[in-house]
Amino acid sequence: MQNEIPYRFVQAPVVKERPDKPEEACGVYAVLASDQPVANLTYFGLYALQHRGQESAGIAVFDGEHKVRLHKDMGLVSQVFDQDMLERMQGQLAIGHNRYSTTGSSKVCNAQPVVLMTRLGPFALAHNGNLVNAPELRQKLADIANELTSTTDSELIAFCLQKAVNEGKDWDGALRSAAGCCRGAFSLVIGTPVGLFALRDGHGIRPLVFGHIGDIEKAQWVVSSESCGLDIIGAKFDGDVNPGEIIHFKPGNSQPQRSQWTSEPVKLCVFEMIYFARPDSRFFGESLYSYRVRIGETLARENPVEADIVIGVPDSGIPAAIGYSQFSGIPFGDGLIKNRYVGRTFIQPTQAMREAGIRVKLNPLPDVLSGKRVVVIDDSIVRGTTSRKLVAALRDAGATEVHMRISSPPVTHPCFYGIDTDTQDQLIAARLTLAEIAEHLGVDSLAYLSKSGMVDAAKDNSSNFCSACFDGAYPIEMEESVSSSKLMLEPAGIAATV
User: Among this protein's residues, is 26 annotated catalytic?
Assistant: First the structure.
């Protein structure tokens, strides 16, 4: 097994202002194809999933049954890999991962995939989600604690799988055993000497889909966090990895082996619909663009206002802004221009630059906004920091009125299943009333989409969502030590019941 993780100097971390959006966990990807450049295909798949994590990227390729070549590092996919590197990663099975850290700090030892050896050969595992029983799992693995090389829950899942295999189980049985030890959100792709496995937690909190390349009889399979990862390489979408399902894709088999390892009520994270997933990804048989236009229409019906122009905060607020415009009859316009070349950067503006109103990502158009009553549509407000600066920039550009409309309900509770929404005291809607938030942001009016409007727009699937960040109804029980750190503002006793 070869490991090509380079040693590098890492500068001291800098403290930077958190964005006003929820921050996602990860994207996972896998390709099983005997006559395709699987590393290159995985690179492009991760490129399509870059929005799900920008901290690190990694690919593991199986070259034969007992040889794995792994490369992972900090940075965007395009920064971590080049053509020379990909050409050295030959094989028929690749596992890929983009990371945003929710458990474990942002450093190269926490990058994925995780590659371990067992009595049956090596495996590579990539994980999207977050476990709520990670401390309990770590305690169960106390006898091998010295072998842990990271601080992630993903590595704990991998060691549970390794332990089950080494105790005598086959790959399918070991996966069921490891999954049964986990509580929380986990969509997994696992490469093994006997093929590719895809597995989803019982509630299906994080998405996972699969498809095939070319003739289905050739059994060339692709698994991705979202369908846009299939589209980018021309793979045909076949379906979802269902909640609580394990799928085994075998080399040469035109039909995957599908089975349920558990059954729970479906609770897909509703923020995948509103914000996280790309608008061209398909959920429940349609693109998310269509859903986001519908919630914009609902937002206009619930919260009308007299105005001259509707604008969306690029990119995620634009479909809802179009829907708001279509229902209200107020013209839609481009009032904000996004710098599309801004990625994750370690170069931070000085305080003087911040005070001068540095606009790294968004810049308003004065000739579009000047003298106008503006409705600005955004998908969420978490902390209220960047939203306040955005409103000030719109007024500086000449907007006479600024009416903010949010295409989701107020975020009042933290997420424990793979979204970094901070502790509850950092959530502006948990601390302030609607009027106080409007005053803090400096808007003329503020309104949110109702919870019923949000879920009803999903039509027949309205009961299939986790909306705990809006209502505190957590679908998975967790230890008090886990929940209390993020529920410090809740009434006494609630932490022990969620």
Answer: yes
